[in-house]
Amino acid sequence: MTLLGVVLAGGRSVRFGSDKALADLHGRSLLLHAVDILAPVCDEIVIGGFDRGVDGLRAVPDRPREDLGPLGGLCGALAYAGTHGHAAIVSVGCDTPRLDRSVIAQLLAVRGIAYVAEAPIIGYWPTTLATGLSEHLEAGGDRSIRRWADAQGAAVITAGAIVPNLNRPDDLEALRHLER
After folding, report:
1. How far is CA 62 from CA 4, 20, 30, 36, 159, in A?
2. Where in the sequence is the domain holding 34, given as residue range(s)?
3. Which residues contact 35 (CB under 8 A, 6 or more apart)?
4. Distance (Å) of CA 134 to CA 16, 50, 161, 174
5. Other C-beta atoms within 10 Å of 156: how many?
6. Is there a contact between 107 and 124 (Cβ–Cβ < 8 Å)?
7. CA proximity to 90, closest of 32, 160, 43
8. Which of 115, 4, 134, 149 lies closest to 72, judged by CA?
9. pLDDT per residue over 11-43, tens digit each?
10. For burial by CB atoms within 10 Å, which of 53, 72, 83, 162 has the most?
């Protein structure tokens, strides 16, 4: 089984004030910190919902159209994974530069649909979900990852620690200060 990693980086970064995927944390973009989380377990990594490739990573557009939030990025990544021979994807957000590796291990151990309670954008998603998710979004269905995943019978795991989610520049500054 091959596994696709997707860093979900779509959206307008309104609360952040600039493109948060490219914001700097200790000399590297938040995007690359998220890639570091996925690299040990994924055969390929892409950027979901982003408008261009960065640092040699392929950008995969939202599906079935833009501006559907993280669920649209997830749908695009599932479609890409299915057409490129991957059995499933593991997703993280670009605004989650830190995550204990045991959380990813817990997701992989489920061997089915699973997400992290503290941050549902972090999850394990079999590619068999692609068509149903696309149909759900085309029909104007709820765009909450948590509610959609729960409707699919997803397992919910807990991280057991705070999962950094950097939505504002102050959040990034607080993490910088904490990690000095």
Report:
1. 16, 18, 20, 22, 27
2. 3-178
3. 5, 7, 45, 55, 57
4. 28, 18, 32, 37
5. 16
6. yes
7. 43
8. 134
9. 766 676 668 888 999 999 999 999 999 999 999
10. 72
From CA 17, how far away is CA 85, in angstroms rounded?
37
The verdict on pTM exceeding 0.85 is yes
The stretch 50-62 carries a mean pLDDT of 87
4 HSE (CA, 13 A, CB side): 29
> For the chain, what's the residue count?
180
| pLDDT per residue as tens digits for the range 114-147 | 999 999 999 999 999 999 999 999 999 999 999 9
CA–CA distance, 71 with 57 (Å, rounded to integer): 20
Please count the structural domains in the chain: 1
Query: DSSP 3-state helix, strand, coil percentages of the chain (rounded to 5)?
Result: 35, 20, 40
Cis status, amide bond into 40, omega within 30 of 0: no
Yes or no: say if 54 and 29 are a contact pair by the CB < 8 Å rule: yes
Question: Tens of pLDDT along 75-92?
Answer: 999 999 999 999 999 999
Parallel, antiparallel, or unpaired for β 44-48 and 119-126? unpaired
CATH number at residue 28: 3.90.550.10
Report the alpha-carbon distance of residue 27 to residue 5 in Å, rounded.
23
